Amino acid sequence: MPGKHLYEYAVIRVFPVLEREEFLNVGIIVFSKRTGYISVRTVLDESRLRAFRCEVDLEQLTQNLDSFQRIARGDLSAGPIAQLEPAGRFRWLTAVRSTALQTSRPHTGLSEDLEATTERLFQELVL
Q: CA-CA distances (angstroms) from residue 102 to 1, 6, 14, 29, 107?
């Protein structure tokens, strides 16, 4: 679809020690209702995570990030949430939670190219 598209995005964050409220940005979720676009990009930099001097189950964290990606893609093996429409998946992924893996509040923008916008946000906010 030509033209600008309204989109929402949220940053995926790891809180290694919830009580300290320190976090590491590890991914981005971008969603456009009009186009049905939803994308999750993640990266887990173990050396940056170790700088928090904490015990983190990296295998579990990797599985959780993979689950975010599978839900966003609508992968049926990811369970019933993945079967929702893109808007429902985005709302579930960005719901407030008190676990080690959280997202920022959603923010909005306009984009002519949602893939390029996703990559730009990933570069600016995560890498």
A: 32, 23, 6, 12, 15
Q: The pTM is what?
A: 0.94
Q: How far apart are the first and last CA of the chain?
A: 29
Residue type, 113: D
Q: How far is Cα 86 from Cα 92, in angstroms, rounded to an integer?
A: 10
Q: Mind listing the pLDDT tens digit for each residue in 59-89?
A: 999 999 999 999 999 999 999 999 999 999 9
CB-based contacts of 53: which residues, under 8 Å, 6+ apart? none
Residue type, 52: F
Strands (E), 1-127: 5-14, 24-32, 37-42, 101-103, 107-111
| Spatial contact of 74 and 83, defined as CB atoms under 8 Å apart | yes
Instruction: Kindly list the distances between the CA atom of residue 69 and the CA atoms of 29, 55, 96, 103, 124, in Å, as whole numbers in the listed order.
Output: 9, 24, 18, 14, 19
